[in-house]
Amino acid sequence: MTSSILSLLQQPESKILEFKRDLSSPQPLLKSLIAFANSAGGRLIIGVNDEHKIIGVTDPLAEEERICNLIADNIAPRLVPNVELTSLNNKTLLIVEVFPSSSRPHYFKKQGPEQGVYVRLGSTNRQADPALIAELQRGVLGISFDEIPMPQLSIQDLDLETAEKLFGNKRTLDEKSLLTLKLLCKEQGRLVPTQGAILLFGKDREMYFPDAWVQCGRFRGTTKVEIFDQMEIHDLLPLAVDSIEMFLKKHAFKSAKFSGMRRKDMWSIPLTMLREAIINALVHSDYSHRGSPIRIAFFDDRIDIESPGILLPGMTIEDMKNGTSKIRNPVIVRIFRELGLVEQWGSGVKRIFAEAKELGLPEPQITEIATGIRFSIRLSESNSEKLSEKWVGEQVSEQVSEQVSEQVSEQVSEQVKAMLGYCSEEPKSRQELLAAADLSNAYMNYKRHIVPLLEQGILEMTIPDKPRSRLQKYRLTEQGKLILSSN
């Protein structure tokens, strides 16, 4: 016991640890105990000053009785922590250990159940808003947000055509499959979509979940003082992964590595790690949260991925690093897994840290912030220098154009030239363009082979304000004509 207490005293205050000098100001102390119970548990050690020196409590037995009475009189539902006295250096410490509670949300009686709920955010206590209180309640009942039915909607509100194209031959999305995947559920004798189904494949997703989109930004330097480029991504969640990756590639730089006669493109940013972190944010975000979308911020020295929603009760950042996982959105995770975007639950974060070590990059940082979780992936110092303000300002436009030409001429030359040549005289449909490149009309082929040409300004839509129109066709831009003629 003595060695464990000495070890605690050497640690900084955290999500699961706090020190107090005495019981002279009980209100902050009680809020900490409430926050521990509603979050991942924790220890409150009384008799330690701000410099982490042991000063002890003056009347141990009386203080022990007082803390027990304070907890009983001021916290509801009833909280029963482990309270004990321990002696160290001839001084007595009062230790209150709280475990994650199955009776959450606990609250401060004086403030009531709507204003008195607190959770632990790093080493501080945060007052829970109604959405967070609702999530705590759902967790106790074993209900996930994305499994809740939306009885006002029907199967017609789902873009099942896109969903079927994403699944391809992996699964037929008949009624049985939709129920198994919990995209549909039975509600009062009707089949209705779940919130997860609308988040994944809803035709009007943002009408019901206005913050379910992704904001990307490229900033000069290492702060958010000056933004260089930005993009809003409103794709369906499974499609957003590739769109985010393309934005990051746009502001990275590429070099080539040759092994024999084979060329391998090397990017200045760790794409595999970033993809894992992006998927982690998409599947674990708290979509009941209002006021903040997922944010991707690209700086010269790092890329920050911020997702709304604090850690689930019982979870700490150390748990995440060790591969422990609690699923906030099981419906979304299941779909991502079946689509091959998630390999194994809980393994993504551990792989990110392992790859950073293998690549010699600084260790990624996970931070609890006011709106949720920030995942920071650091870049190597050499690449940070190349992505400096001068490099970005003077060379990125030219380099992107060179990459486009290089990708057209080397990476997918025959397929791209076939498509560009086919629509050089008159606009062609998606199916016609893919057929010209000997590709099927699968949606993933459209995403991989046509969408990049649109984003790079080589092709353009004939009906840009209605991208999903059945009459939509594609034609060459001036840049596309230049590239075609040069090849």
UniProtKB/TrEMBL annotation:
Q: Which residues form the Filamentation induced by cAMP protein Fic-like C-terminal domain?
A: 414-477
Q: Which residues form the Schlafen AlbA-2 domain?
A: 13-128
Q: What is this protein called?
A: ATPase AAA
Recorded name of the encoding gene: recG
